[in-house]
Amino acid sequence: MVDYAGAALGTAFSELFTLVKDLVITIAAFRSQLEKIRSTLERIEPIIKDIDSLNDQLDRGPEEMAPIKELLEEGTRLVIKCKKIHMLNLCMKYTHSKRLSGFNAAVLEKFQLYLQLLGVKDGKGILVRVNVIEEELIELKEWLRPVLANGGAFQSELEASGELAVPAVPDFMVGSEMEASLSKLKEQLLEKGASVIVVTAPGGCGKTTMLRKLCHEAAIKGKFNNKIMFVLVSKKPDLTDIVQKMYQHNRFKVPKIKSEEGAGYCLQQLLNKIGESPVLLVLDDVWKESESIVDKFVCNDIKDYKIVVTSRYEFPQFHPVHHLNPLTHDEAVELFRRCVTVDNRSLGAPDATLLNEMVEHCKRFPLVIKVVAKSLRGKNYAFWKKKLHELSEGRSVLDLETKILDCLRKSLDDLDGDPSIKERFMDLGSFPEDCKIPATALIDIWVELYRLDFDGVRATPDLHELDYRNLADLVLPRRDSRVDGDESYHGKFSTPWPNLELPAAEALVLNFRINMQIKTYALPEFIAKSHKLKALIVTNFSFFPAELSNFHVIGSNLRRIRLERVMVPFLSMGNLHLHSLEKISFFMCDISQASTSSNAKISDAMPNLQELDIDYCNDLVRLPEGICEIKSLRKLSITNCHNFSALPKQIGQLTSLEVVRLNSCTGLSQLPDSIRSLHNVRLLDISECLNLIALPNQIGQMVNLNRINMRGCLKLSSLPRSIIKLRNLRNVICEKEKADLWGLLKDTLPSLDITLFEEEPSLDWLW
Question: Percentage of the chain with pLDDT > 70?
Fold first, then answer.
């Protein structure tokens, strides 16, 4: 490592870098977060070195880089604190995992910001580095979004960022056959060399489950580190999309690819870049007609490169091959018992004979066993007999996969007795196959279709019911570990919509892709004639955002709009007539371009808006002042917008506000004084606002404030005197250091409950 002695910034950087490199080897509890920080520091090390030498030559003072120096010193203190946490202290581990991820994101963002402020005006010495610095910054910017997405993960250990991260490790795995295959496959992956390994079995035998567990094995993670990529291939793979995700996963600038040939070229370029260390690529669920895509990932120039293919088909040109067989009868019974169990209470079959027959009719396939067993949880003897009779029909069916589908169909037939849940399940079909569906999008649809409460409180149990019945997997958010791309639906959609007629439609979900030739998506004209439409969900499944146009077709009856990965200037919506609109959500959108009309007023366009939700919109710096004229606004949520720096000074005019969420807005340094006028606000969430230095002096005038979440506010070190006036304050979430400040107020605020962030936050916080 370069010696930075004598340079203040270099010293701070050197201390942190040395500490991280030592601890990433010795501290297992935070290894994945520390590896990301180490990778970030490795990327900026040569630039730090040049900045120090140029400052010396040009007589610059250290104050120009003081904010970065301060952040690096904060990082050193945080890493030292993590060093002292015991690996079994899961609460502290979760808390500080998230803080490490937040620090990593802050380093990337601060570094980019201050390089731009320094400029390139100080002579030829700096100009030599301009192009290199710009390339570094572009890569950091492309990397920033998936890294920041990891900051909100709620799981025991945060894993690699991006859409190709390995799915969570399964709760359990049953079967000596699978254990033996896993052991053999593990042995082959740990060997040096390049190979393509095929794991084959009929659908539902547990191929993907085994690979998920294998990729989380300590020895595998130790060898391949962050070079493990888990790609869902499916029936109609999009090579361009996969390659772009691979670039993102490996933290390189994402190329703009115009053809499949270009994708193949970029793929080989990437493999050569990352091939200096071992690489593991899992191609999951490769169909027979997609066999040729496997060849495109082969690279003979990499010395230690393993490709594992899971498929229902055996590809004879690739070796070795692992055949997974169904479970033995005893193993199938064990799996069935586990899956029919609820809350560690045994809810097995009424008698052993009935259980054995049920298992045999499931053909001992894990997928079928899981679905059927979960459908029997808590059911009585008569229901078990009814299910057995249904499974007994069609004994002549010889094809195993047909039998599996038949079993699954009969499990779905059980929903006939619960039509409301069946309707919710059918609504899942509005979204592409093999993708994660944002819960908020479903709730927006259900609220309008089924006349639920505005906040969707009554919709949440339905999500859990689908999960309970094994009809969907409910995943607590990695705040947008990002929604998976559509691997098998719509393809490269660029053709215009047909002239549909949907006079009775109340909810519309538009899923689309763009290609490099057509970057604009026009809303279909038939929306203008859909006069009963209440909810509109627009999702761009392309890697890059699409420019959204044709907004004039949106009618005044719409109550909810959700936009994802689109470019739409927020102010330009002031020309619309959305007088019934109650909620609008922007997710990973570009919304800050200038309006095309200086007369456009958001308050005129949507005068009855109750909820504004802006998440991961990194181009957002400030909210338009016109927002403050929407008197009906009850919920304002600006989250994970890392360039967002200030609320409007007139925010106090929004007297109907009840909820203000600003979590993970790392560029926010202060709140406007007018916030004191928000007398109806009951929840203020400023968690992970790393640069927030103080609460407003007159925050005590927010007389109905009930909860404050201020975890992760690293720079907030004191409380204003007016805080004692918050007589209705009942709950504060913070770290121990901040809890000491609040503890001094217990006599003045006797009803105040201080929740240490080391404790698991209550789900009540969602409402």
Answer: 77
Res. 413: pLDDT tops 90: no
Q: Which helix (H) or strand (E) holds 212?
A: helix 207-215
Contacts of 719 by beta carbon, 8 Å cutoff, 6+ apart:
695, 741, 742, 745
Element (H, E) at 229: strand 228-234
How far is 67 from 701, CA to CA, in rounded Å? 33
Alpha-carbon distance 454 to 686, whole Å? 24
The phi, psi pair for 456, rounded to 5°, reads 75, 20
For a pLDDT cut of 90, what percent of the chain falls above it? 27
For the entire predicted model, the pTM comes to: 0.59
Q: pLDDT higher for 15 or 92? A: 15
- Residue among 436, 450, 423 at smallest CA distance from 587: 436
Q: Three-class SS string for 532-585?
A: CCCEEEEEECCCCCEEEECHHHCCCCCCEEEEECEECCHHHHHHCCCCCCCEEE
* Long-range Cβ contact pairs of 55-63 (< 8 A, separation 24 or more): 55/7, 56/7, 57/125, 58/122, 58/123, 58/125, 62/7, 62/8, 62/9
CB 166, CB 160: distance < 8 Å: yes
Three-state SS at 707: strand
The overall average pLDDT reported for the chain is 78
Q: Is 638 helix (H, G, I), strand (E, B) or coil?
A: strand
In 3D space, the residue among 640, 758, 767 whose CA is nearest the CA of residue 86 turns out to be 758
Q: Is the pLDDT of residue 24 over 60?
A: yes
Instruction: Report the DSSP beta bridge partners of residue 507.
Output: 535
Provide the 3-class DSSP secondary structure of residue 730.
coil
Enumerate residues 6+ apart whose C-beta is below 8 A from 13.
4, 41, 45, 48, 72
Residue type (1 letter), 72: L
How high is the pLDDT of residue 111? Answer: 62
3-class DSSP state of 459: helix
Chain-centroid distance of CA 267 in Å reads: 25
> With 50 as the cut, is the pLDDT of residue 137 above it?
no
- Among 745, 647, 660, CA closest to 706: 660
Distance of CA 397 to the CA centre of its chain: 42
